[in-house]
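Field: COMPLEX_INPUT
Field: COMPONENT_COUNT = two
Field: RESIDUE_TOTAL = 644
Field: MODE = joint
Values follow.
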Amino acid sequence: MTDKPIFNRLALIGTGLIGGSIARAARLQGVARSIVATARSAATRKRVAELGFADQVVETNAAAVEGADLVIVCIPVGACGAVAKEIGPHLAPGATVSDVGSVKGSVVHDMAPHLPAGVHFIPAHPVAGTENSGPDSGFAELFVNRWCILTPPPKTDKAAVERLAGFWRALGANVETMSPEHHDLVLGITSHLPHLIAYTIVGTAEDLSEVTRSEVLKFSAGGFRDFTRIAASDPTMWRDVFLANKDAVLEMLGRFQDDLSGLTRAMQAGDGQALFDHFTRTRAIRRGIVDIGQDSAIADFGRGHAGLPAEPLPRPYAADNE
Amino acid sequence: MTDKPIFNRLALIGTGLIGGSIARAARLQGVARSIVATARSAATRKRVAELGFADQVVETNAAAVEGADLVIVCIPVGACGAVAKEIGPHLAPGATVSDVGSVKGSVVHDMAPHLPAGVHFIPAHPVAGTENSGPDSGFAELFVNRWCILTPPPKTDKAAVERLAGFWRALGANVETMSPEHHDLVLGITSHLPHLIAYTIVGTAEDLSEVTRSEVLKFSAGGFRDFTRIAASDPTMWRDVFLANKDAVLEMLGRFQDDLSGLTRAMQAGDGQALFDHFTRTRAIRRGIVDIGQDSAIADFGRGHAGLPAEPLPRPYAADNE
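Field: COMPLEX_OUTPUT
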C-alpha cells in the first residue's frame, strides 16, 4: 500500500469534461485506490471504457456508489436532485458526496433532502473548463492553478471537508470555502453573466440581415471570436445554470445594464474623457488577473500565428514600380 | 535591384502595434526598398530607432512623407484629420496614402479634404491585433491569415488599389474591398460592440460591493477573464472608435439589447427549451470561425496548462483513510 491515496474508492457519476478530467488527474496523482465511473448513455459508458481513465465502468448510479468513500456527481445541475434521490439509499456510511456544479444554492436545495445522515455532503465547484464537452475532452491538468470552491453546510465535519480539500489540492487546485449564496453571486458576475452576454451577442450577429454570416466569420478577429468560444460551451449545462441561478444573474444583469447605459450616454454626448477614463480603469483588472496567474501574460491568449508566406503572393502591378 | 519591392519608400506615421508590425513584416518580405517612420513623442522615436525596424526615424510627419510612394497613417482615428492636413502639402505626386483605422467613414470624411489631387487615397483596416500597444508590441506575423479591408472611394485608380492589395497580401493578409459605410456596420458587430460590452462588464465587476476584487480575479477563469483581454486594449484608440462610429455601434447595441431581453424573459419564464435552442445555435458559429482558420481549434484558445504538482500537497487527513 502506498501512503498516497486520500480516498479508497472514487465514484464519478458523469464523465464529461469535468468528470473525465477528475478521473485522469486522480489516477495520475494516485489519490484514489480505485475509480469507478458511470454515465447515462450506453455509448458514453462504452467510450469511457475504451479511454480507460476509470478502473471500472458500471451501468447504474446505484452500482457506482456502492462501497465508494468519495462520490462526485459531475452532471448538469438540473439533474442533481434526481441523481441524489437515486443514490441516497446506496451510499456507504461515512462517504463524502460532492458535485462540480456551477450553481451551489440549487444543488444544496435539490440534493440534501435525499442524502442519509452519516454521509458528508460537501458541494464543490472547480472553476475551470474549456468550450469542449464529452469524455474525450478531459485532461489531467485542467485544475492546475485554478480554484475549487467548497460550500459545506455549517455543521459539516471539518475533517471531511479538509480531506476533500486535500483531494482537490492534489489535483493542482487552490481551495476556498464560502456559503452557497455568496458563491452564486460571485459566479454570477465572473461566469454566468459573461456567458449570457456572449450567447446573446453571437446570436445577434447571426441574425443580422445587413451583415452576412460570411462577413461575421471573416472579420471575427476584431474581438467577436473571443465571445464565440464561450458561446460554444455545453448547451445543457448552461441552460441549467441560468434556470438555477436566475436571481443572481438578473441582479448582475441589472448592474451591467446601468453601466452600459452610462457608457452609451458618454458616447452619445461625445464625452471622450469619460470613455478614456473607463477604458484605462478596466485595463488594470486584466493586469491583476495575469499577475495572480489566472491567465496568460502572452498576447492574444498565446494564440499561435502562422509564419509569413515564403514568397510574396502574385503582385500584378509590382512592375509599375520598377 | 531585386524584383520584390512593391513600393520604393514606405512612410509609417505611428509606430504602435499596427505600424510596428507593418514595418517588421514589410522588411521581412522585402516589399519596400526603404522604410521611414515617425511617432509623436521623442521617447517613442528613440525606442523605434533602438528597435531598428525602420531604416530611418524622422521627427516630423512632413519629413516622413517626403518622397514616399506609400504613406500609412497608423494612429488613433480621431487624429487622422489633423495628420492629413499636416502631410497634404508634402506628399509626392502619385503617392498612395492609406491608414489602418478601425472606422472608415470618419477617416474618409476627415482625411480626404486635405489630400491633393494626384494622390491615391485608399483607406484600409487590417482586422488584426492584440491587447498590447506601443512600438515593442508589434511582430511580423500579426497579419497572416487575417483580413485587410480596403475602402477606396469610387473613382480610385484600380492599379493603385491592386498595388496596395498586393502589399497587404505580401504581409500575409487576405484582402477585401467594400464601402466605408458597410465596413463600419460589419465592424460594429464583429469588433466595436464586443469591445463596448467587454469594457462595460469588466467595470461592473470592479464596482460590485458584494463581491471583492480579489474574488473577481481568482474566479475569473469561469469566463470573465476572456472579457478582460479585450477590455485591456488601448484606451485612446477605443475612445476614438466609439466617438467615430457612434451610429453603427448604437444600432448594433439596439439589436443586442432586444436579444438580451428575449433570453432574459426565457430565463424568467423558466423556458429551458428556448435557452437550449439558442445555445445550440451559437455553438455552430464557433465551428464556422474555426473552420475558416480565424481562430484556433485548440481548446481554450490553446492557453497553456501547467503540469500537476509532482507530489500531492500536504494532506493532513490522509492517514484517516489508511
